[in-house]
Automatic annotation (TrEMBL):
Domain of life of the source: Bacteria
Keywords: Cell membrane, Membrane, Transmembrane, Transmembrane helix, Transport
Cross-referenced PROSITE patterns: ABC_TM1
SUPFAM superfamilies: MetI-like
UniProt main location, coarse: membrane
Organism from which the protein derives: Fontibacillus phaseoli
Protein name per UniProt: Raffinose/stachyose/melibiose transport system permease protein
ABC transmembrane type-1 domain boundaries: 84-275
Biological processes annotated in GO: transmembrane transport
Amino acid sequence: MQPTISAERSVRRVKFRRLNFGKAFIYLILTAWAMTTIYPLFWIVNNSFKVSRDVMNNSFGIAWNPVLINYDNAFERISISKSYVNSLIMSGSTVLLVLVFGGLAAYVLSRFTFRGKKAIFSLLYATLLIPAFATVVPVYELLIKTDLVNTYWGLIMPHTAGNLTFAILVMAGYMATIPKELEDAAFVDGANRFQMFLKVFLPISRPVFASASIFVFLWSYNDLFSALIFVNKETVRPIVALLNEISSQYGTDFGLMATAVSLTVIPVLIVYLFISKYIQKGLTEGAVKG
């Protein structure tokens, strides 16, 4: 009897050591992640409450006496509010168009069987391999011919076209997991295809719509390359292009640069906080069931 008890205790000790080692490893990884992601954000926000001289002399020190002059300059001297509005209009419109057209296309590809369906999927996957830089010249020529350069549509249309493929593939994979019984029940109730999409597939697919929207918003919001080429006019300049102007015109005002970066990140964090609970579910549901 005694040897059995000792053996059980030994097994418990081994499990306890493994458990402690596992927890320590997880905490180590989380700490490293926090140092490389959360701390840089804190560093930027903290330096936004310092004057440029203090940022250069003690950039890692805490702003115990915060000043708001950088925020005043951001809204008065460089008109960051106008760039805010431009970015939100362009990115918001891009998200809306991608969800509407991408959702309808995903519904057709996931629930209908027709000739050429596999070829369409192959074409969609192939377009993901084409770098965005390879399409700049033809897209710019099209925008010139249609007089869309330096307009909101001059950035909305390329962003919509560039993000549609990703959105269609992700949403189609999710919609393919929806049980066919729901579709049959909607038919029995007299719903047509469009009503079925609005009343059945759209509510059930909210997680994947939320996931697609946050990625599309981030990619369009942070696209500096396209903004510098397609909308370089001050009246329609998005906020990422404004940051580039600050770094060139006000290169020595590090406090102003930190403030502009902090204000740029705020909309992304707000959008993410509102729909974060849907993101993981939307991206993994189709992969698990499909």
